[in-house]
């Protein structure tokens, strides 16, 4: 399966309120045979914009989901993106996986909120991260800080996930996450991970880049530095070694 992720500069306020800018990118990637595209955390309405989180948050039936669904359907590829979700009087840091037919295949509310801003803006997600099938692959979802906790990735692996999609907003100074923790999560669970970050300044916050696509052996298939980038890779199937490795680990944990 060919996948892509976008490492982006933070969007302007206007762009962060309207996902239309995704359409030409999605079309170009689909023309290259990409089946899944991943963009960073809270791309709608922007990460470091706490005043916008509550004011602009939308329900799953809202305009953002409809717009991204239309883009995915028109381009012919799946899109995973982070956004501010409203449910009643609560707001969540959420991510959704929209299939190439425009339908929502997976939805997740971030459990591990990072820092004062996130904790003031959002409620903690309570549901187990989802695993769902898409074009013959089992896919799981996490958001940013979640991937730093081994338990979350392991829960997904136990449910049969082969690919983890992880929209993120990792600040500068936390390079150990993409350098060490993401590859470790991939290797210890025999899963591929798509980790899509921002780069550059967003108000008083600077993002560290370092987005990457990691194979089930923990080795990077594609990685970004300190500039905007589009990463594309063909995900390998789990090797017999990886399957046996994971099976042995899970058996030892059960025993």
The total beta strand count reads 14
Q: Compute the separation of the termini in Å.
A: 34 Å
User: What is the second-level CATH architecture?
Assistant: 4-Layer Sandwich
Strand order, largest beta sheet:
5-4-3-2-1-14
What is the fourth-level CATH superfamily? Carbon-nitrogen hydrolase
Q: What percent of residues adopt helix (DSSP H or I)?
A: 25-40%
CA-based gyration radius: 17 Å
Reading off the top of the CATH hierarchy, the class is best stated as: Alpha Beta
Query: What percent strand?
Result: 25-35%
Protein name: Carbon-nitrogen hydrolase family protein
Family: Belongs to the carbon-nitrogen hydrolase superfamily. NIT1/NIT2 family.
GO molecular function: hydrolase activity
Keywords: Hydrolase
List the helices and strands and how they pair.
Blueprint: E1 2-7, H1 13-16, H2 22-31, E2 36-38, H3 50-56, H4 63-75, E3 78-87, E4 90-98, E5 104-109, H5 115-121, E6 131-134, E7 137-141, H6 150-158, E8 163-167, H7 175-189, E9 192-196, E10 199-202, E11 205-208, E12 212-214, E13 220-223, E14 229-234, H8 240-254
Parallel strand pairs: 1-2, 2-3, 7-8, 8-9
Antiparallel strand pairs: 1-14, 3-4, 4-5, 6-7, 9-12, 10-11, 12-13
Helix pairs in contact: 2-4, 3-5, 6-7
